[in-house]
Task: inverse folding
């Protein structure tokens, strides 16, 4: 933990995060950090507080108390726009995209480039399509899909790929993936896991949330386990623990993975 | 090959069905009654068509964003009543009355928009309430009687809105140019601009759009204001043309307008809309109404045809949609 703490602060650090929904405490003092170019798996049973934690980080709900640091600087995240501004991009399961719009239009949604005078509000579709084609190749969609294809015509894995490509293109430092492998076939899941590896290689960090621990094991550097609104383990390495051991921590049968 | 793709692309477009239907309807009625295509009949049909059409254009934008507005018929009746009451009773100049009435209409749209977006009440309920409130106000203001409309034929404002001239055998109103101009503008906005992208995103997946920083609520509020303004403009145009401001006018227009919009391929649940389709939908319904009367079918049967067209078009759109998605996979 102390290695390089002075010159290389964590990308994201959360300290003593508390979130109350009325009388219910969803997060009771969470400490969590994600390093640069690190893929972290966030695991926990239903109601453990994973979703709330992600909502806090992505700006969907405000925290009740606590501190969030981005590269050592304290920040406040009150809205999704704030989160995006701090380089935090959340990809919600199957809902990050507008199915009726084309791939290119989804990529640039909310950051549309103009062509000509701004008051005409005209989209620079040529540029959007060119960048989209390029990104689709980069992210590893092998099929030749034109960037004008509506998202509705893509498979689940291709949609995740588009969402990840978008986060990478806009230089999000931290990409949060909420159940990205849900409802995907075996080949598609491997595809998505590859996109995640690709994101790390190009310098991004990820928080990967999934119920399927096997998927998490294949790709993450470190596993964080939450239970009842707290982080109960935050330094499980897939290399020196087993899926069964992690399951016991998630369900509360063990407090820690045996060292 | 290329030509073939162009052709199949054209057929796959949601506007293709309505286009064929419109051509068919015109051919059938034109054959049954030659008067159908006479300049006089075309002029007469177009006159009211463009007034309803203005409302349908704005409704297309609103429905693309996932909302709709049932109060447009009431606003259509209320706005001219308010304008003429101010001109008649308060002695305001026509320009001022027009501006105040339009601002009042925009206020109605703003109110509905805020109600829908801030209180998260479905637009069906909010605008149903507004339909009754606005109609009620129009009736109370006038005691239920039509407003006296002094002859405004030579006023510059009425010339600008509904001045008419003859071209060959056609009598053309300025409102036709308003309709064409606004249709072109809205088509441009919906398909080529950032605003159009936001409107489609707001209707297609509001949560995803919000997560990208799209101001979904603000977009919708503006579209409610637009819808109300267009209904008001149409009402004023209609009242000047017919020299009558009746507090009851516009009843039931909301459903006819929504029918026009969905026939054109715009989806009731939002996300996809087509101004071209709406223009076709507007023409189809108005041509049908005119043609049915001309060929001697009892006018009372009109609704049967309209209902059948709506059902047929919905079946067509949904089957095209399925094919489109399957082909993409």
Result:
């Amino acid at each position: 933990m102390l290695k390089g703490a002075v010159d290389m602060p964590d990308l994201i650090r959360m300290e003593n995060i508390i979130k109350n929904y009325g009388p219910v405490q969803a997060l009771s003092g969470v400490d969590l950090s994600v390093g640069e170019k690190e893929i972290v798996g966030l695991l926990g049973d239903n109601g453990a507080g994973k979703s709330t934690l992600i909502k806090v980080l992505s700006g969907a709900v405000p925290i009740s108390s606590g501190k969030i640091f981005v590269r050592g600087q304290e920040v406040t995240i009150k809205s999704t726009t704030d989160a995006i501004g701090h380089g935090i991009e959340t990809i919600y399961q199957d809902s990050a995209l507008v199915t009726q719009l084309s791939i290119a239009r989804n990529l640039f949604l909310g950051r549309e480039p103009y062509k000509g005078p701004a008051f005409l509000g005209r989209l620079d579709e040529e540029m959007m399509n060119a960048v989209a084609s390029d990104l689709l190749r980069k992210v590893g969609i092998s099929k030749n899909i034109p960037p004008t294809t509506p998202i509705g015509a893509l498979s689940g894995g291709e949609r995740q790929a588009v969402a990840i490509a978008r986060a990478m293109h806009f230089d999000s430092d931290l990409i949060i993936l909420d159940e990205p492998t849900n409802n995907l076939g075996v080949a598609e899941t491997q595809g998505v896991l590859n996109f995640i590896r690709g994101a790390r290689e190009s310098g991004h960090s990820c928080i990967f949330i999934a119920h399927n621990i096997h998927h998490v094991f294949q790709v993450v550097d470190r596993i964080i386990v939450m239970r009842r609104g707290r982080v109960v383990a935050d330094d499980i390495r897939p290399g020196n623990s087993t899926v069964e051991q992690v399951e016991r921590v998630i369900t509360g049968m063990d407090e820690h993975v045996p060292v | 090959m290329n030509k073939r793709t162009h052709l199949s692309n054209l057929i796959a477009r949601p506007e293709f069905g309505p286009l064929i239907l419109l051509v068919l309807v015109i051919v059938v009625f034109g054959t049954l009654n030659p008067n159908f295509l006479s300049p006089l009949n075309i002029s007469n049909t177009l006159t009211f068509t463009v007034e309803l059409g203005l409302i349908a254009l704005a409704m297309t934008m609103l429905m693309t964003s996932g909302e709709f507005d049932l109060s447009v018929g009431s606003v259509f009746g209320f706005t001219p009543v308010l304008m003429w009451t101010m001109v008649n009773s308060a002695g305001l100049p026509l320009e001022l009355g027009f501006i105040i009435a339009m601002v009042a209409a925009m206020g109605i749209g703003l109110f509905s928009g805020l109600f829908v977006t801030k209180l998260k009440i479905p637009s069906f309920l909010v605008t149903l309430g507004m339909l009754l409130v606005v109609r009620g106000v129009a009736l109370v203001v006038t005691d239920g009687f039509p407003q006296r409309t002094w002859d405004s034929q030579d006023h510059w404002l009425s010339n600008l809105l509904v001045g008419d001239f003859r071209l060959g055998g056609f009598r053309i109103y300025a409102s036709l140019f308003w309709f064409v101009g606004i249709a072109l503008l809205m088509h441009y906005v919906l398909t080529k601009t950032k605003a159009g992208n936001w409107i489609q995103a707001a209707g297609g997946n509001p949560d995803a759009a919000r997560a990208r920083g799209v101001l979904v609520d603000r977009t919708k509020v503006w579209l409610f204001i637009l819808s109300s303004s267009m209904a008001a403009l149409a009402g004023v145009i209609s009242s000047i043309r017919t020299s009558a401001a009746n507090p009851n006018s516009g009843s039931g227009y909301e459903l006819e307008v929504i029918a026009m919009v969905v026939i054109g391929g715009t989806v009731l649940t939002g996300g996809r809309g087509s101004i071209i389709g709406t223009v076709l939908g507007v023409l189809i319904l108005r041509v049908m109404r005119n043609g049915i009367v001309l060929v001697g079918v009892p006018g009372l049967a009109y609704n049967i045809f309209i209902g059948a067209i709506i059902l047929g078009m919905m079946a067509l759109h949904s089957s095209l949609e399925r094919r489109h998605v399957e082909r993409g996979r």
User: Anything to note?
Assistant: The CA atoms of residues 148 and 282 of chain B lie 30 Å apart.
